[in-house]
TrEMBL record:
<dbReference type="InterPro" id="IPR005146">
    <property type="entry name" value="B3/B4_tRNA-bd"/>
</dbReference>
<dbReference type="GO" id="GO:0006432">
    <property type="term" value="P:phenylalanyl-tRNA aminoacylation"/>
</dbReference>
<dbReference type="GO" id="GO:0004826">
    <property type="term" value="F:phenylalanine-tRNA ligase activity"/>
</dbReference>
<keyword id="KW-0175">Coiled coil</keyword>
<feature type="compositionally biased region" description="Basic and acidic residues">
    <location>
        <begin position="287"/>
        <end position="298"/>
    </location>
</feature>
<dbReference type="InterPro" id="IPR003591">
    <property type="entry name" value="Leu-rich_rpt_typical-subtyp"/>
</dbReference>
<protein>
    <submittedName>
        <fullName>Leucine rich repeat containing 47</fullName>
    </submittedName>
</protein>
<dbReference type="InterPro" id="IPR001611">
    <property type="entry name" value="Leu-rich_rpt"/>
</dbReference>
<feature type="region of interest" description="Disordered">
    <location>
        <begin position="530"/>
        <end position="562"/>
    </location>
</feature>
<feature type="compositionally biased region" description="Low complexity">
    <location>
        <begin position="544"/>
        <end position="555"/>
    </location>
</feature>
<keyword id="KW-0433">Leucine-rich repeat</keyword>
<dbReference type="InterPro" id="IPR020825">
    <property type="entry name" value="Phe-tRNA_synthase-like_B3/B4"/>
</dbReference>
<dbReference type="InterPro" id="IPR045060">
    <property type="entry name" value="Phe-tRNA-ligase_IIc_bsu"/>
</dbReference>
<feature type="domain" description="B3/B4 tRNA-binding">
    <location>
        <begin position="348"/>
        <end position="524"/>
    </location>
</feature>
<feature type="region of interest" description="Disordered">
    <location>
        <begin position="275"/>
        <end position="318"/>
    </location>
</feature>
<dbReference type="GO" id="GO:0003723">
    <property type="term" value="F:RNA binding"/>
</dbReference>
<feature type="coiled-coil region">
    <location>
        <begin position="422"/>
        <end position="449"/>
    </location>
</feature>
């Protein structure tokens, strides 16, 4: 009996010790980020929702003890209702904060700011209804977000914008309000000098009833999208925005019948000229009635503003000729390229869209450098540092189809990365990690550059995605690198493009749209500005050999307006069923003003 009693006491003691012992680490990502002094952190995946729910619908307090973080993303978590206290105090160096597709709302308690270094804030796809003082983005005095450049509030339930937004974020350049319930803009948004750098304003799919004539005070505005609202008038003063290049008023009920037709079929330049000349689209049906002298004075002021802002040259180039994009359908193509998707990518990076573009001129001057630089910028901006999607571009001559998009264990995936020898994916990732650590030591700082910035996107993945050609060679390893086999050179004129994402097919399509239109702009500039080949990038020349002369350019024509041909690429599942084709009838629907799409 005594021995049993003693055993029972020992068991009780053991149970008590176990209860007193610390619980297993519920947030291994935070422990890893702290140990490796990381600057980037991504929290997502099926296990995140339960952990956030257990934390009371907030982010764990330990997250706010990582003061070195520059990039933080927490996405796709239906149990995240508020960030939680301590974010502003604990993450003072944060440059990018992505909290999309969660359940934040109806407000933000406590408010996010002040975040003095924040440049990108993405709160899209949440349940925000209002952002009043104390439950919003941050204080107005002093500015809570003084360096913020990009704000995405799309896909929420906002009925109004905070009136102090311009004071809270005075350096804002991009504002996305698409898909909310707004019926008006606050007057402070258009106050003279309030947002001097704002170049993109998107507020499609709201309930807007009026656009103030004071919109003309947005002197840097280049893109305005107010489609699918309840506007009845467009103020004539909109034409006074000196840099405005693209407007979208489709899906409204404009009382001016002619303007209603123009917004569906005419380019921005024609719409602005109509408003400027006294069309009945002006505020409350009143057109411009000023005499020719005042109109000429306005024209001169606009031209002076363009010259001072560096836009004059761009306007002159834009008006000399147009660029055509011709879509070649699969039925018209005797040898269409196809991509077969393996089920192995379902839990890794399931979405892919492809396209073939023919007729690029990368030989002249710095055309290749401009193309590669534009791809980098797309990765930084619309691809959200490759977290939303990754772009890969290939020399079509080196691509052997059909292609297979699949996933392999890191030890089984072999690739010849750009500028390197053949290596297994696990060894490549390890090499990049060592390079990143060496970079930190040499620079005596924590941030890294190049491919090293994207290594965290592979954390926790048992298999890595890859695109394999008909020879069995891996030509793409997203989101890290392409293969040397299909590297773009100055002699490349026909390209295969791919966009992969863990988010959605629509994300892939939107980014492919942006890439194709950017290529059209680059080609247009190259054809209209005959650069001397001797001014080209010496590194690119070393790779591809001496450039051909202008007369041998594969896409140049006498009139300088050769079209780019965009060939449809089909993506099929393992059973051969169509998953997506690009470009479809709905793709490339928002082409730039100087681009015409022929289908």
């Amino acid at each position: 009996m005594r021995s049993r009693g003693g055993g029972g006491g020992a068991m009780a003691a053991a149970a008590a010790a176990a209860a007193a012992a610390p619980a297993p680490e519920a947030w291994p990502e935070l422990e890893l980020a702290e140990r490796e002094r990381r600057r980037e952190l991504l929290l997502t995946g099926p296990g995140l929702e339960q952990r956030v729910r257990e934390a009371g619908g907030r982010l764990p307090p330990r997250l706010f003890t990582l003061p070195l973080l520059h990039y933080l993303e927490v996405s796709g978590c239906g149990s995240l209702r508020e960030p939680g206290p301590g974010l502003a105090q604990g993450l003072p160096q944060l440059h990018s904060l992505v909290l999309r597709r969660n359940a934040l709302g109806p407000g933000l308690s406590p408010e996010l700011g002040p975040l003095p270094a924040l440049r990108v804030l993405d709160l899209s796809g949440n349940a925000l209804e209002a952002l009043p003082p104390g439950q919003g983005l941050g204080p107005a005095e002093p500015p809570g977000l003084p360096q913020l450049q990009s704000l995405n509030l799309s896909g929420n339930r906002l009925r109004e914008l905070p009136a102090d937004l311009p004071r809270c974020a005075p350096r804002l350049q991009t504002l996305n309000l698409t898909g909310n319930r707004l019926d008006s803009f606050p007057a402070a948004l258009f106050r003279p000098g309030a947002l001097p750098l704002l170049s993109e304003l998107a507020a499609a799919d709201n309930c807007l009833r009026e656009l103030s004539p004071d919109v003309a005070h947005l002197t840097s505005l280049k893109t305005l999208d107010l489609s699918n609202n309840q506007l009845s008038e467009v103020p004539a003063e909109l034409a006074d925005c000196p840099k405005l290049k693209e407007v979208n008023f489709r899906g409204n009920k404009l009382t001016d019948r002619r303007l209603e037709k123009m917004v569906h079929g005419c380019q921005t330049k024609s719409i602005l000229e109509y408003l400027r000349s006294g069309g009945r689209g002006g505020g409350r049906g009143k057109g411009r009635t000023d005499g020719p002298e005042k109109e000429e004075a306005r024209r001169r002021r606009r031209e002076r503003r363009r010259r001072e802002s560096g836009e004059g040259e761009e306007e002159e180039v834009g008006s000399t000729s147009r660029l055509l994009l011709r879509v070649l359908h699969v039925s018209e193509n005797p040898t269409p390229l196809t991509v077969h998707v393996n089920a192995a990518v379902k839990d890794v990076r399931p979405f892919i869209v492809g396209a073939v573009v023919r007729g690029m001129d990368l030989q002249a001057g710095n055309a290749l450098r401009r193309f590669l630089t534009s791809q980098t910028k797309l990765h930084e901006d619309i691809c959200e540092k490759r977290t939303a999607a990754t772009i890969a571009t290939h020399d079509l001559r080196a691509v052997r189809g059909p292609l297979v998009y699949t996933a392999r264990p890191p030890q089984d995936l072999k690739i010849v990365p750009l500028g390197r020898k053949e290596v297994k994916a696990k060894d490549l990732v390890r090499q990049l990690q060592l390079e990143a650590e060496e970079h930190r030591k040499q620079k005596k700082r924590q941030n890294v550059s190049g491919l090293h910035r994207y290594l965290h996107l592979l954390d926790g993945k048992e298999n890595y995605p890859c695109l394999v050609d008909a020879d069995g060679d891996v030509i793409s390893f997203p989101p890290i690198t392409n293969s040397e086999k299909t590297k773009i050179k100055k002699t490349t004129s026909d390209l295969f493009l791919e966009v992969t994402s863990a988010t959605s097919l629509q994300t892939c399509k939107e980014i492919m749209d942006a890439l194709v239109l950017k290529m059209a702009e680059i080609n247009k500039y190259t054809l209209e500005n005959k650069e001397d080949g001797s001014l080209s990038d010496p590194e690119a020349d070393a790779v591809s050999g001496p450039p051909l002369g202008p007369s041998t350019s594969p896409s140049a024509e006498k009139d300088g307006s050769a079209p780019l041909v965009v060939e449809q690429v089909r993506v099929l599942d393992e059973d051969g069923h169509l998953r997506v084709v690009y470009p479809s009838k709905t793709d490339l629907g928002c082409a730039a003003p100087h681009v015409t799409v022929i289908r």
